[in-house]
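FW: tagging you since you asked about this chain on Friday. Here's the raw sequence from the shared folder, copied in full. Didn't touch anything.
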Amino acid sequence: MKEEQRGLWYWYHNVSECYYHIRLTVKYRKVLLHDKVKQTIVESMKGFKERYAIEMQQMGFDQNHVHYLYRFLPKYSGGQVIRLIKSITARQVFEEAPEVKKVLWGGEFWTDGYFIGTVSGHGDRKVIEEYIKKQGREKDIKQLEFFDL
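HL: got it, structure written out here
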């Protein structure tokens, strides 16, 4: 059973808050993200939360790449989620806009590469580092030493 409270996902005995910034680029950096392709990509993402427990928080288009903010359970790796997104969206784009496939010489829609970065709902890296440094009982903090790894 899953439920959501205050930005956290509860899945059986697990609680997670994992956000990821993902950027995917069109093959050969072709400028192909016109309105029909954008709409197809948006439509193809509907139902991801229900089917895969992958929730899109935001999506932003540029001329040849897309930025996403996703939240998904840690049972998936980032690579698994990206492969799923790429395969489903590319299949839909080629089906709905076959002219795009011709421009790409019948090949793939997305480049092989991608960007993925984690995003915290509680602040940036410095905030989390300070939070970790301050863990423990007050009297023990002086005895603990924080090591930069």
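FW: Helices lie at 35-45, 48-52, 78-96, 98-103, 125-133.
HL: agreed, and The first strand starts at residue 2 and ends at 5.
FW: great, closing this out.
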